[in-house]
Amino acid sequence: MDSDTTPLIEARSISKYFGAVTALEGVNLRLFPGEVLGVVGDNGAGKSTLMKVLSGMHAPSRGQILVGGKPVHFRSPRDARSLGIEMVYQDLALAGNMRIDENIFLGREQTRRLFGLFPIIDHKTSTQQAQSHLDALKIHVKSVAQRVEELSGGQRQAVAIARATAFNARVVIMDEPTAALAIKEVRKVLDLIKDLKRLGMGVILISHRMDDIFYACDRVMALFHGRNFAESALIETDRNEVIGWIMGNRKV
């Protein structure tokens, strides 16, 4: 990765206060094209709050967010999505009783004009585009017409990722994507994350699983009590050191 490349997204001195509670204090983060950044920390370290700031759910109390080197102000997740910032939450937020293609385009349905006047959902185009998108991501399902409730946990996670990346995503933020998966499905999701990297997207991966971090990530940063604690390329650290960061310990 070229160190001179402009970050896809950058957080500079981000602080977030909830009344008298300090969730984040002066946090910095940079994510580059084609990079997977692991974010680790104990419960309450500020990981989820930082991701909600980056995805437009929370406005920072202080600090600045830059996308492609330009300062931005997100008023809502819609603003973040318009700039290619997508977040896949741990609960996935999928509609189980709807088809795969319907979930991928939920809220952003493909339409056509009936008699040139009335907009209606274009199911044929949605089906074709959903299948093409799944193929590009190497996601294998029996049919895009399957209901999500019929899928395995790993397949549901893959559909959530497909939905997040279907509309020119540049940054995908994932909150514990393998936490609820069977062991055999974990590798498939991590390989999908690597495929996003190969497509030039940037991925932020929040995980408590060191196996996930060291398999899929290029860099790891640790938060501790709402602050930056440590950061390293994966090839320059090891599991024990990263676990120490999570607990607030540094090598002497």
Give an overview of the whole structure:
With 252 residues, this protein is an alpha/beta fold. The chain has one domain: P-loop containing nucleotide triphosphate hydrolases (Rossmann fold), CATH 3.40.50.300. The protein contains eight helices and twelve strands. It has helices at residues 47-54, 77-82, 100-104, 123-136, 153-164, 183-198, 210-216, 239-246, and strands at 9-18, 21-31, 36-40, 62-67, 70-72, 85-88, 111-114, 118-121, 171-175, 202-206, 219-224, 227-233. The strands form three sheets. Strands 6-9-10-3-11-12 form a six-stranded mixed β-sheet, with helices on both faces. A four-stranded antiparallel β-sheet has the order 2-1-4-5, with helices on one face. The protein has a two-stranded antiparallel ribbon with strand order 7-8. α5 packs parallel to α6. The chain is globular. The model has no long low-confidence stretch (mean pLDDT 90).
